[in-house]
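This week, study the protein below.
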Amino acid sequence: MLKLFITKEFIFEPEEIAIILILNGLQNNKQDVLFTSIDEIGYYLTGRFLDAHKDRRIITGIKKGLSSLVENDVIKLIAQDKNNYVFDSVTCKFDGKDNFTIIELWEVQKIFALGAIGFNLLKYYVNIIGTINGKTKSWHMSQESMVELWDMNYVTIDDYNHKLQGLELLYIHRNKARKKDGTYHKVNNVYGRYRDKADIISDSGIYLETVEFEYYKEKNKLDGDTRTSIKMRYNGFIKGAKKYINNEKEISRLYDDCIRYNESLDERFEEISPLDLSVFNSSSKKIS
């Protein structure tokens, strides 16, 4: 399968990254010019022919990426006829002297199977793959560093990680350990390409040997809607909601959910106070 190269020397917008990867793959050293089109680039990105209506956001992104690369003198446009382009082939060529990241075409197409979000998701994938140690096939950058370096937020990073793991492109090994340096920050996760899962798990053990740590029981994870729902039911119980009067089953269920709520809180939720479980008397729920 075609391997695509992108330099680490420049910061590109999401649409630019997708386009420059494809143009680099299409470029031929034997030709002075590169003939291409929106349809051809779209086919390489997605592995199928684009539908003018259903795929309009992808088409718009392709056009935006091409225009931006030309305007910023990254690639040189020689001629254009509507959705057909002729570029100076040399400007579409990857310079092997730069630091670079290799992305395979099938990876790009898997990402774009999710639709136009593929532009942003591909940029994140290129960034995170670009941090990986070529020898160990893994790395352990913290989310805090990702937020700062890539101008993203934690919610988006978690969402993109989830999507990439679902596509079996990214594997993340969670150490479930905290540093014993007084901060008790979580030891960074170790990640890499999904196909290198065994190497990632192995390297995770080596990485743990470089820090003092202690294992912890992973907190239950609740999404925001579930957490809000539990808090509303809890407040209703405190106010004497009818559904809990002489209903041990409902009280017991709420109590268990309140425990899940409290256990789900970590350093990201410092502004949220745990629920006071003392409101559940012993006759409603026996606490062992």
